[in-house]
UniProtKB/TrEMBL annotation:
Lipid/polyisoprenoid-binding YceI-like domain ranges (all copies): 34-209
Keywords attached to this entry: Signal
This protein's record includes keyword Signal: yes
Alphabetized SMART domains for the sequence: YceI
Protein name in the entry: YceI family protein
Signal peptide annotation: 1-20
Keyword Signal: yes
InterPro entries documented for this protein: Lipid/polyisoprenoid-bd_YceI (IPR007372), TTHA0802/YceI-like_sf (IPR036761)
Native source species: Hymenobacter segetis
Length: 211
């Protein structure tokens, strides 16, 4: 019995080793290269409105990258420095300080605790039949403000050319979904004409370059 069993085991082991060695290898897709965001070339504008007034201004991107495949942006993450908020329509220094101070407080963005906001791209979907100079993709991803993350999507114009990846567009954000309820008529019905609208707009132009 032993004389039969040992050769049989050796044969099985040999066949198994040969099969493993000759098995075709599965190709692994190369990761999409990352293009480094250029804060000095990128812009981020904002506009917020209340019943009786409104303000416009800017913030600055601090860092990030865009993932690229061919001539398309396929992913990436960008970070905004919330301490760079400025209201460009307020010219008086004292009024500017009061406004930014209130926006930076826990009533709104809580900048001392949450100094950055981030957006991580989940998908970039081409818009069929898009005109040459119009929005050509729909970007979906996770926006994190004040430690709260929400999935959003919006149209944008995006592409890659000569080692530069760019994306631009406008997105409307519902601040109450991130816990920013101050002055919202949705939560304080008796606030009257002191109400601040729940949504604000962001206009962005992100530029990233191949490393």
């Amino acid at each position: 019995m032993k004389k039969f069993l040992l050769p049989a085991l050796f044969a099985v082991a040999t066949i198994g080793a040969t099969s493993a060695a000759s098995a075709p290898k599965v190709a692994t897709a190369a990761p999409a290269p990352a293009y480094k965001l250029q804060p000095q070339l990128s812009t981020l504008g904002w506009e917020g409105k209340a019943v009786t007034h409104g303000h416009v201004g800017t913030m600055q991107f601090s860092d990030g990258d865009l993932l690229v495949k061919g001539n398309n942006i396929v992913g990436g993450t960008v970070t905004v420095n919330m301490k760079t908020m400025v209201a460009t329509d307020i010219k008086d220094a004292e009024s500017q300080g009061k406004f930014v101070g209130h926006m930076s407080s826990d009533d709104f963005f809580g900048v001392a605790t949450y100094p950055t906001s981030t957006f991580k791209i989940a998908s970039v979907t081409p818009i069929k039949g898009a005109a040459a100079n119009a929005d050509n993709v729909t970007i979906a991803g996770d926006l994190t403000i004040k430690g709260v993350t929400q999935r959003i999507s919006f149209p944008a114009k995006a592409g890659v050319k000569d080692g530069v990846a760019a994306a631009s567009g406008k997105v409307t954000i519902d601040r109450t979904k991130f816990g920013l309820k101050y002055g919202s008529k949705s939560f304080f019905e008796s606030i009257g004409d002191k109400a601040i609208y729940d949504t604000f707009d962001l206009t962005f132009n992100v530029i990233a370059k191949k490393a």
